[in-house]
Amino acid sequence: MKKKVCRNCKRIVEEETCPGCKGNQFNSTWQGRISVLDSKNSVVGRKMGISSEGEYAIKSR
Ligand SMILES: [Zn+2]
Hints:
globular, 8% helix, binds zinc ion, mainly beta, 1 helix, Rubrerythrin, domain 2, 5 strands, two-stranded antiparallel ribbon
């Protein structure tokens, strides 16, 4: 199954519902990915407003 990106929180998901924000709006076109393992201490995570661990897309549309 192709991975897609949640429009709301940018999390990369395979499910039909985003496990992070429970949203169901997704983008299938995205570029780059970052893994946030420790959201409290991740500079990138803070910059992107990420509040939970997971994989996120850098760019999506
Ligand atoms: Zn989400």
